[in-house]
Design brief:
2 domains, alpha+beta, 3 helices, SH3 type barrels, globular
Length: 105
């Protein structure tokens, strides 16, 4: 998985996970950025918003928001449950919190 900000012009990817607080995720979901949706990167130049094609529409997304969208190539072979678990455990390790309280073993 990688951030949408790392995708080159012309590449197509699939949304895996939205990072950030409730308001950030809510705003992204309102624009159509939900896990499982395919995105085509139209332009992603340094120093400005990126233009992506999602659900038949072109949307300009600021650099900060791009960092909240985690994507993978369309042929990703990890199950969504495994991806979420790996993401959350990495996040909690960075924060110094214990992840075992939040997941079933």
């Amino acid at each position: 998985m990688m951030m949408l900000s790392m995708i080159q012009d012309g590449e197509q990817v699939e949304i895996v996970y939205l990072r950030g607080g409730h308001r950030v995720r809510q705003r992204l979901e309102a624009m159509g950025f939900v896990p499982g949706v395919s995105i085509h990167m139209v332009t992603n130049q340094i120093g400005g918003p990126a233009i992506v094609k999602i659900k038949g529409s072109r949307v300009a997304v600021g650099r900060g928001m791009l960092h909240h969208i985690l994507v993978q190539p369309p042929s990703g072979n990890l199950s969504p449950d495994l991806q979420d678990t790996q993401l959350h455990s990495r996040h909690f390790r960075r924060q110094g919190k214990r992840s075992h309280k939040f997941f079933k073993h």
